[in-house]
Amino acid sequence: MPIATFIPRILLRQLGFSALYHYAPLEALEGIVTRVTGRPGDWTDCELRLTASPGWSWAGKRLFRDYSVLDFELKLKERGVYTYFFGGLPSRWGLYKNLNLSKAKPIEEQGWGAVRVPLEEVLARYAGPIFYRADDAAVVIRGGYEGPGAVHPLPIKGRRG
Length: 161
Description:
By secondary structure, this protein is an alpha+beta fold. The chain has 4 helices and 9 strands. A 9-stranded antiparallel beta sheet has the order 1-7-8-5-2-6-9-4-3, with helices on one face. The protein is globular, with a radius of gyration of 15 Å.
């Protein structure tokens, strides 16, 4: 099983990702968007709060735990609590492996939405180590992310009328 390992920031930049993408069930988007800052559209600019998880889920009848991240820090309270992104738009393999989603139809028809965060915003707002898993271009950070980004689709609560 491929695991995410530490990657220096300069090497992450050299991979050429302009944005990181985090996928979440549609019902979770309402809690991720803290404030709409742009006009509603295909991607709507927002202030976001991504809360870290212990790295496991039942998505696709798979059980993921934090053993998918090679993190040697054992003393942290947030040990094993990570936020996962795709570096750039996810591949067919990345969507299937992690979320059991198909690229053949829109993600919202499959009950999911996406958050897009510029890579430089994550690097500016997050001081901890960054981990990378090459087989699916997963970028992993300890803890959560709060800051600007965009969401697709905009949850009903966040729509301006």
